[in-house]
Amino acid sequence: MAAGASLADTPEALWSAADVVVKVRPPLPTEASKARPGTTLLSLLQPERNPELPPVLQSLKLSALALERIPRVTRAQKMDVLSSMANLAGYRAVIEAAAHYQGFFSPQITAAGAMPPARVLIIGAGVAGLAAIAAAKSLGAEVRAFDVRAAAREQVESLGAAFLQVEIQESGEGAGGYAKTMSKEFIEAEMALFRKQAAEVDIIITTALVPGTRAPILLPKDVVEKLKPGSIVVDMAAEQGGNCELCKPGEIVEFNGVKIIGYTDLASRMAGTASRFFANNLVHLITEMGAGDKFRVDLENDVVRPALITHGGELLPPPPRKEPS
Ligand code: NAD
Predict the structure, then answer these.
(1) Is residue 65 a contact partner of residue 309, using CB atoms and an 8 Å limit?
(2) Which pLDDT score, from 0 to 100, does residue 228 have?
(3) To test the ligand 1 pocket, which listed residue (73, 133, 148) has its Cβ within 8 A of the most ligand atoms?
(4) ipTM over 0.90
(5) What is the pLDDT of residues 185-211, one digit of tens each?
(6) Is the C or the N end of the chain the one with fewer CB within 10 Å?
(7) Which of 69, 72, 149, 305 is labelled catalytic?
(8) Is 179 in the pocket of ligand 1 (CB under 6 A)?
């Protein structure tokens, strides 16, 4: 209120008064029923996971933008909530690992004894994985990482981590700069690599995702068995089924003295910063759409159109995806 906003008494009052509704989570199908036709909704919508939602938004004649569909291009980076939240979550994954790990991350040479640095393996070097590498390095750990996309190598090495490889040659680049589903042979080669790595490392953070599919299983039980007691796994893919076979979403599982952390709310564990970054992204998006009276849903706008799933009573299919730049 100090910032000039007014508080609605009920969600219905808010929906019926607003021209633009900004949300973090998708609305429940019943929630938007009081919205006026033509209202713009800016929210994470995940229509693949909530197939009942688009027809409801269509029948209410909302212009609904799914924030997760904002294109991952340089021009739209400041509006990209997926990147902001993945960045926070990757950092927080390391903090959670450090809180549960009973050793130092940085090497120690003390009168009471010497300790080598913690060895950290990061699987998947997208936005979250790179943030995790930077956080683990800044705590003094020795970090190694693996990704199926060749482009990740330079980014991993520029953060001072070692990039691991498998013998088998297969391109991991899929549509839109994301990874593709890898062959069974490649996944087996990866698991052989991780089995060897598990005998050496103290902490594994997994972030491997392929859009539109369940997360690949990369740490089966026999790989976890190779980890020393006291080791930590943080499975950042928990919400999409998990990269670790033993992961339970939202829980910490203990197996042979190894803790497997399956938190699905890593960004929310830094709620203040997550809110600030999310709000900044949304301010940039609203500014892109036009400040004040100029605000409009422009179907020609190359950031707005890919995110738009319903408009003017129509369901809009996604336009062809452009490569990230
Ligand atoms: P993501 O969350 O979909 O996946 C995380 C990582 O898992 C990816 O790096 C992927 O290659 C990796 N992965 C998938 N299967 C794997 C397997 N079997 N083994 C190991 N790793 C596996 O990815 P993301 O963080 O959202 O990034 C996706 C792409 O978009 C990246 O190329 C990123 O650089 C790009 N991007 C570009 C911008 C931009 O504005 N230009 C912004 C954000 C992301």
Answers:
(1) yes
(2) 98
(3) 148
(4) yes
(5) 999 999 999 999 999 999 999 999 998
(6) N
(7) 72
(8) yes
